[in-house]
Every structure is written in structure tokens, then in C-alpha cells.
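During the second year of the project, the team shifted from modelling isolated chains to modelling whole assemblies. The rationale, set out in the original proposal, was that interfaces cannot be judged from single-chain predictions alone. As a representative example for this report, we include one of the complexes processed in the last quarter. Its constituent sequences, exactly as entered into the pipeline, are reproduced here:
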Amino acid sequence: MRKKYIFVVGGVMSGVGKGITTSSIGKIIQSRGFRVTALKIDPYINVDAGTMNPTEHGEVFVLKDGNETDQDMGNYERFLGVELTRTNYMTTGLVYQTVIERERNLAYGGTCVEVVPHIPLEVISRIENASKKAAADVTIVEIGGTIGEYQNILFLEAARMMKAKHPHDVLFVLVSYLPIPNKVGEMKTKPTQYAARTLNSAGIQPDIIIARSRVSLDTRRKEKLALFCNVNEEDVISAPDVDSIYEVPVNFEKDRLSTTILKKIGLFPRRTNLDDWQKLVRRIKGLTVPVRIGVIGKYFETGDFILSDSYISVIEAIKHAAYRVKPIIDWLNSEVYEKNPSKLKELGLYDGIVVPGGFGARGIEGKIAAVGYCRKNKIPYFGLCYGMQIAVIEYARNVLRLRDAHTTEIKKDTSNPVIDIMPEQIKNIAQKKFGGTMRLGSYPALLSQGTIAAHAYGKKEIFERHRHRYEVNPIYIEHLKHAGAVFSGTSPDGILMEIMELPRSVHPFFLGTQFHPEFQSSPLTAHPLFVAFVQAAAQKKKRTRRK
Ligand code: GLN
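Output from the structure prediction step:
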């Protein structure tokens, strides 16, 4: 069978759900019996997403092979139920780096190496390679950025070249936005018309338009888009805002989108099975009992706005685990607790608290205080990476009474470095080698019997994804254990502490992981530790109600 490619490009503005559209198209094609893989192209110079601040670019999603990528890769994995690798991700920087290295190695045989065609050719070769590696029937490629920017023009050129070579195997989907200005009250198609024209000027005609908006499109708007953007009316798909992103594939199928796409690329469906997904959506819609979860972080303020994108995998993992309750998630800024410790009391209003991954000093004392509050007041606590390290620091300070216990990430000269840099990381930092050098990707850990972790996972050996430079300092492990802390997961050689917890007899749920469990949770297979945490939160809610 000839390999098929679907390019997803965005019009009008960013943040309209291109990633969810790409994932959902993948899902519905997969449900018709085809092998699907997905690729993300990010049009910036950074070689990967690892060196960017999450408030700039959202969450850094870590693949099993350790590649630090865009959050959309997480959506692809969650929707498609597959594990992707570095082959599925590229940035402008990475593409240029490869071409320049190849030129230095004389691999272009003395020719003049130029932006066009050599850059698009490298892009095409990466796309084809990813498709081959996944043995995919259909490969979906999301081109980041918005039509009309300089940044993604070479990627559009690569897509155009692929279409020119294989006209029947390549399809273009334009995801656009139709605003409804308050004062006007009417849905406007003009920005999308411009986007389609701009795409035309790059030599590309969209085959399908996904029309994102607050509400569904009416026939009038569909007719207009069809006429002015040169597509059939039935190829304009309405994509109104939804409560849960997992509704999107189901909504697409109401418009028979997979049938339209398959016809256009000349594939005959083998079966249709979106049952699990439909069941999932019905279940999510039926949830009523609220459980309040507070997430304490710092990467969510952008100007006057709140951006929860920085923690998207954490939010989704909480939602996946909430089988029977409806999670209400609040953002808590830890700096508030530093300035005004009396505010800590507000934590008591929550059924569970999460401290997700993080870096640097801002807000850390507030986080330590908050974790202490959860420990003493028996509020279910789940710490992810930095959140685990902070739990260890808090325990050392307040239970072991090592008042200056700290991480050397923040206080280099602390006399009690309970969290310390991993030996192999010292050189990286000294040489300023920050990109792609953390302890990254999937590593095994062994669990100790009789612990919360072992009970939740129901097995002895686990594999989880990492992204950190610091670890629990081995010198303090025995002291911490002696004082009641349980290290229920360790690296197979017993050197690295992977999970810290407190026994159920002293706290209903107090657990931190050195890894990031959120990267392996998906809607159809919730992560066991998130399930245990949400259960503990639901129980706390019941307990408080009874009082
Ligand atoms: N800053 C910590 C470290 O590097 C934790 C990192 C994280 O939370 N991902 O070890």
C-alpha cells in the first residue's frame, strides 16, 4: 500500500486546537483500521523544547527516549495510544543542524548547499523516515505556527513538494478560527478566507477546513467558506468549543470526517471502532461529584492571563484518573504563601494538592510550607519530580530537624544538602551544556512490597520518564528512613530514590515521585498513581462532608 500523508496547518491565530485536531484526525483514521503515526514540526531555532521556559512555550513533554518536545506530542500519544520517539519531532534548529553537519562532512559531494531545496528535502526525508519507522499507513504532520509567518515557510515548501510528487497521497487540512466579535454578534469568515489565500500563495490548496469557533457553523458560513476557499461544502467541518478535548474525534465523526479523508487519499476503511472512545466521552459527561485539586506552581501567569498549558499532562492525568468524580482544578501560586503564611489555611479547602515539576528558586519556600501543611493536616499530597524533592526537604527540615536542609539547586552551600546534583551532571553544568543533558526519558525502578506505590501499580518493576539533574542525596537516606519516610521505589541498583511516601497509618496519601508519571497517562489507561491520588482525594471529601 502506498503511504499517505496528511498535513495539518493553522490559520488566523495560534492556540485554536491544531494539536487536538491532529490527534483527533489520527484517532478517527486509526479507528477505521489503519496504522497511524503523527509528527510535530516546531518552527523555531531551539534544537528541542527542553531549554524553553514553559510560560513561553507551554509544557515540555518528554518522550520515552528522552527527547524533550512540544506538548502536542503528549496529545498524540494520549489520543493514539502509541509511544513516539525523537523521529516524530523536529524543529527548524534541528533540521539546520543536520544539514550543516552533513555539509561539514562533505556529504553533499561538493555542491552548493542552499536553503531551498536542501532544507525542505531534509524535512521530507525526516517525515518519510518517521512514517517508515512506525510502519504507518497514514502519517499526520502538524506544522507549527500560523500561515503567513516567515517561520514555517520552508516546512510548507516541503509539504508542497511532497504533494507535487505524490498528488494522490497527500492531503491538506487547514485549521482556522472564526471569531464572533461581541459588538457584531455575527460569525466572521474573512480571516479564514485570508488564511486559505495565504496558503494558496505557498502553492497549497486546502482539501479540508476545520472551522474552529465558539459555536457550530451555520449553512451560510459553510457556503461562504466553500465558495471563497475553493473547497466543497461538506469539506468544511464545524468544530465548536467543547468541554472535554476527548469529544473532538466523536464530533468529527458526526460529520463523517474519516470517510471524507479516506476517500480523498484513496483508502478503503477496514472497520470502524470508536466504541471505547464514545464510552469514555459519555462517562466524562456524566460526572457530577466535584473533587477539588489544587496545583501549586509558578508557570501559569502570562501578563494578565492564566495559562494552564504549562502543566497540561498533569491536568490530563488527573482527569484520566477521575473515573467517578469531576475534578475541579485550581492554580495556586506558591509565592503567596511566602509573603503571607496565614494563606496556607486555604489548602484545607482542597481534597488534594499537587506540586508538579519545576526549576529554580522562585516560590520554593512557599511550596515547602505548603507541603508541610498538607503533611501535618493529612491533605492528600502528590509531588511530581520537584514536588518529591520538596517533600524530602520539608521532611528533613521539620521531622529530622535539619533546619537548613535544602537542594543544592537553590542553596549551593547548605550544610544539609538533602537533594544534591547527580555526579554525572556536575560536568554538564560546569561546561554550560544545558540542552538535552538532564537525566531524561524512561528508566526502570523497583518497588518495595506493602507500599502505596506497589499496591497502586500492582507490580514490582516499573518504567517511568524522567527529567531532572538533582536527586535525593544518598548520605541522608538512612536518616530519612529512620524518621519514618519510606522510599518505595528505587533504581534497580538501589542508588537513586525514585518514590518517597509516608505510610498509610500516618497519612492518607503522601507520595512523591522523582519521575514524571503524568507523561504516561492516557484517557483509556489512567496512571495508577494518579488513580490512587484521586481516590484518596475523593475519600477526603467524603470524610470532610461527614464531619
Ligand atoms: N529542578 C529539579 C531537578 O532538576 C526538578 C526537575 C523537575 O521537576 N522536572 O532535579
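The first strand starts at residue 4 and ends at 10. The chain has a mean pLDDT of 94.
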